[in-house]
Sequence to fold (508 residues):
Amino acid sequence: MNLIKSTSTFSFFTIISRLLGYLRDILIAVFLGTGVLADAFFVAFRIPNTFRRLFSEGTFNAAFVPSYSSLLNKKKEAQNFANSIFNLLILGLLVLVLIVEILMPLFVYLIAPGFEGDYDKMELAITLTRITFPFLIFISLASFFSAILNSHNKFAIASAAPIILNILLIGVLLFAKILDDNLVHYLSYAVTISGAVQFIFLYFFVKKYFSPKIKFKIKIGKKIKNFFKRLLPSIFSSGVTQINILVGTIIASFQAGAVSYLYYADRVYQINLAIAGIAIGTVILPQLSKYVKSQNKDKINLIQNKALELSLFLSIPATIALLIASEEIISSLFGYGSFDELSVKNSAKALFYFAIGLPAFSLIKVFSSFFFARHNTKIPFYISLLSVLLNVFISVIFFKQIGFIIIPIATTISSWFNAFLLFIFLRKESFFNFNFIFIDRFVKILTASVIMGIFFDYIIYFFNNELSYQENFKAIYLIGTVIASLIFYFFIAVLIKAFKRTDINLNY
Fold:
């Protein structure tokens, strides 16, 4: 396997999905803005979307891939193990969805307690969540198929599947004016339908490696028990950023428009997180698991250092750019139609504080993979639990005084806390050691990022008028600025040898 090639493949389709997601959110911003309909839809969408991220963006992989990969040399045993997991997932998901559908009013109250005082808003959120919640069944099983493909180092199809969701939602949004207030209902139906389509799409590719068979009698052996013991901790620890954001959504429901502000800010930094954390963590896990099993310390050290280097190479400049131009970025992407100037300013404030935590979000994904490859989910789980409790504590204590902006601040503080603790325990358990190449590159990455930041700040200042809220073509100037800054960053990085393709493009 080749780290840069596999990461690039995963990242390519992820970027396509995220770009379509931006188009989707621009249309949502134009037609829904940050009002009642938007808040209700985002709460209904947040739950299945959070589960999608928890299951499909590396977290299900964390528990499944190491166990399944270790059985690949015993084809029949691997098939039986996978089939047992598949059947237990179906059974568990059907029961969960049925219970939640019956208790939906209580469920929505728990995830959006701030809606209680607004009857119409609460009723709409309940209806929309009932429509979107079955998405959980399909996307979880689709993620299971993705984990099978990833175990065989087939990353392209799995990373392309989420594109289906955005295509269907964009298709509905094109008829927004005709659908009017019914738009949110059709969007909700499209969410669930997209889950079914992704499931069918992935099935056609996974059947080459795995043939699912529905069985009512399932033998639960030691390997199955161990898998499910690791599943919940791995989902919680690897998906801690998404859990923190979900917690933020619950608290934000007490302030009008806050759910929408956080949603739009979240959408912007997610594209970098998908590449700098999720893609790298997902790609290294199968191979790292194999080298851990064979105790090849040189290969383990090489993969881990290169993964960390690549993650920081991508996340640090993105952080600097978001800190410099958070308002211009939000305005250029979403500042049209019903998305007014106040919405731009509030979403930009949230983005600014999320940006400070962006390297930590990525490091959590990468560091967690180092533990998961060793079948260790307990340490990341306990650290993540502490991180979530810290996030809740800060958010609840200061929400009344500061308002919704405390949510991204608390998420960032708790994420850096998480990342530092993961690093400390990696060192303590002797799971990770820096090599000299990484230390040299890290200093150069910081240097290249600062130089890029100065260049980016100058261009933003130069096009200040063209990027103002009133301008209709501001997105074109922003795209040009970002492309120019990326080219400049890569040029500086290559010039000072902060990035050397021959060192990262390794067949191992």
Q: What stands out?
A: Residues 3-504 form one domain. Residues 238 and 368 are 6 Å apart (CA to CA).
